[in-house]
Structure formats: C-alpha cells, structure tokens
C-alpha cells in the first residue's frame, strides 16, 4: 500500500536564492521536490502555501498552514512543512496547538544553507524529514533537523549558522535519523484531553524581557494599549525586582485590569520554580501565572491560541498550566 505524503512549502532559507539584497526564497516547488530521495511505497506531492523569509511569518500564516493541512487531512498519511529556521520554533509550537489531536504526523524542517549550494544541509534534512514522516508511528507536530526529531512545542533555535541549530529544550529527543533509518529514542505518553480543536489565534499580546533598570511605565503603556495578555521573561526561577524599581505593583495592576500575566524565565534549561525564592513568591502573589518548563516560543503560541476563545483569567490560568502537546511539566 502506497503512503501518501504532502510537502507544503512556505519559503525560508531552504528555498532561497541569492538576490541583490541577499538571500530570498524564490525556488519553484518542482525544483525543491526534486531534491527528495525517492522511497519505495511512498508517493510525494507538493504544494505552496506561501513563499517568505520566516522572519516575515505572522500568526495568520500559522493559521493558513494549519487550514491547508486540515483541508488535505483525509487525502494524505503524513505532512512535511518546509520552513525558514528563524521562526520555525514559533510555527511548530503554534501548529501543535492549532492541530491538537491530529492523527497523522506533521513534520517541519528547513536548512541553514539553501538547496543548490554545495555545503547545504537541506538535502539531508529533507531526507530525514521524509524518513521520520514515513516511519514513525507517532502523531502530532514535530521538528526534524540535523538528524534529530523533537516535539513541536519543545524545539528552539539555539544557533544562527551551525547545522545543529535546533535543540529540544526540557524534553527528550524523539528519534535520531540517518541514511534512511530512524531510531526511536523516546515515546511520549499519549494525550487524552477533551480539548476541542480550534484553528484561530489572537495575536494581541505583549512579550517583555526583564532587565535591571526596567521602567515600570511600560506596564501603563500595556494597559493603555489594551493588550489582552502579557508574557514576562523573568530572572532565574521567576523572580522580578521589588526594590527601587518595584515591578510587583505593576503585576497587580495588570491582573486587576483583567490582563493575564504569564511568567517564564530567561534561562533556557530546567524551567522555573516560582515559589523557591521570595522574589518569585511575590510575583505569584501579585497574580503572575507560572509557565513551568515551557519555552517562550511555545508560550507565545499557546497564549495566542487560548485568547482566541477566552479572556477569562481563571480559564487562561488553567489552560496555560495544562500539559498540551507535551509542552509542560517534564522537568
């Protein structure tokens, strides 16, 4: 029986060519698909969703990709999405929520060097993505890059140029892939959440990185501008300063204004324990919602996805702290 795999292209470095203004995606789909290694029993089709540098990817584009996948859901057994690396982690996390419960594998991949360049990593990544998509028994959204597969909500780009650009943060790698062979490394538990899928996002959020000297006036702007959610990258385990430039009253003000405040950490590994230190406990008491060991890319996508259906703080708190697509509470 032939396995039907659909490749959806969105642009990115993998499809880029040199222009007067640097690399820009402009490769035809029929050229891109010619680089895939043909496999017995696997039939490849290709379709373009968009063609852009992933720096230009917007939340509305996540929705467009998700809608395209669902439109072809019944016709294909697996999906490969080629994507630029700079915002791939945001897109993979977003698709993990937008397509939550999908019963087929959706695999994102791309490259650090364009196809057609002698030192490209794109050919390997295409081959590996196809190997994983056609051999895995898992369903959901994944990133395959440099011989490793990771769940979509845990992939983070950690290098700007190296081939091993992506890491699985606070979660095991799912598989290693080489020369057409996939070796399973970890099998995530199957989710059993009665969450109704919705393919929509509300991008009206604000992401703020704490730094020594942060002026509290930024919080007044957030309220005046009527942002519907705030994510703060705190220090260490979830702490924010309460001396001199005291941020705690500002967290309280946002909470009282009905704006959920999600607290994550600037530290990439090992998550946070907001109650470990006084500086974190004060944030929690002011209404800050801890995000545990989630990465910022996943928090951004998850909050936008939640805000598309509710503005109720208690519901947002419950959903943010509910494990969805393996995004939370591993470490």
- CATH homologous superfamily (4th level) name of the largest domain: L-asparaginase, N-terminal domain
Order of helices and strands: EEEHEHEHEHEEEEEEEHEHEHEHH
CATH classification class of the largest domain: Alpha Beta
Strands of the largest sheet, in order across it? 4-1-5-6-7-8-11-12
How far apart lie the N and C ends?
41 Å
CATH architectural designation of the largest domain? 3-Layer(aba) Sandwich
DSSP strand tally: 16
Q: What percentage of the residues does DSSP assign to strands (E)?
A: 15-25%
Task: Please count the helical segments.
Answer: 9
Shape summary: elongated
Q: According to CATH, what is the topology of the largest domain? A: Rossmann fold
Number of domains: 2
Averaged pLDDT, please?
Answer: 95
Radius of gyration of CA atoms, rounded to a whole number: 20 Å
The largest sheet is: 8 strands, mixed
Structural class: alpha/beta
Detail the poorly predicted runs. none
Helix content: 25-40%
Describe the structure.
- It is built from nine helices and 16 strands.
- It is of the alpha/beta class and 331 residues long.
- It folds into two domains: 182 residues, 3-Layer(aba) Sandwich (Rossmann fold), CATH 3.40.50.1170; 116 residues, 3-Layer(aba) Sandwich (Rossmann fold).
- An eight-stranded mixed β-sheet has the order 4-1-5-6-7-8-11-12, with helices on both faces.
- Strand 7 and strand 8 form a beta hairpin.
- The chain starts with a strand and ends in an 11-residue tail after the last helix.
């Amino acid at each position: 029986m032939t396995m039907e795999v659909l490749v959806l292209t969105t642009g990115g470095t993998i499809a880029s060519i040199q222009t007067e203004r640097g690399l820009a995606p402009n490769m035809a789909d029929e050229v891109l698909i010619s680089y895939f290694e043909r496999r017995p029993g696997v039939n490849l089709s290709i379709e373009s969703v968009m063609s852009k540098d992933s720096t230009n990817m917007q939340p509305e584009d996540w929705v467009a990709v998700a809608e395209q996948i669902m439109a072809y859901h019944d016709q294909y057994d697996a999906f490969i999405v080629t994507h630029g690396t700079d915002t791939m982690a945001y897109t993979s996390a977003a698709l993990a929520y937008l397509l939550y419960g999908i019963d087929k594998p959706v695999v994102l991949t791309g490259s650090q060097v364009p196809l057609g360049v002698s030192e490209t990593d794109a050919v390997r990544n295409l081959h590996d993505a196809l190997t994983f998509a056609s051999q895995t028994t898992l369903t959901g959204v994944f990133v395959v890059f440099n011989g490793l597969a990771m769940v979509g909500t845990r992939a983070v780009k950690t290098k700007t140029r190296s081939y091993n650009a992506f890491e699985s943060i606070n979660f095991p790698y799912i598989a290693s892939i080489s020369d057409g062979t996939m070796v399973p490394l970890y099998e995530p538990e199957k989710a059993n959440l009665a969450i109704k899928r919705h393919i929509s996002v509300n991008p009206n959020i604000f992401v703020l990185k704490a730094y020594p000297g942060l002026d509290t006036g930024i919080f007044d702007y957030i309220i005046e501008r009527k942002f519907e959610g705030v994510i703060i990258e705190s220090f260490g385990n979830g702490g924010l300063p309460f001396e001199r430039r005291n941020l705690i009253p500002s967290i309280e003000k946002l909470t009282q204004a009905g704006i959920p405040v999600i607290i994550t950490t600037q530290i990439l590994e090992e998550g946070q324990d907001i109650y470990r230190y006084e500086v974190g406990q004060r944030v929690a008491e002011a209404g800050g919602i801890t995000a545990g060991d989630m990465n910022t890319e996943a928090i951004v996508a998850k909050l936008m996805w939640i805000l598309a259906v509710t503005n109720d703080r208690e519901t947002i708190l419950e959903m943010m702290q509910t494990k969805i697509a393996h995004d939370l509470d591993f470490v």
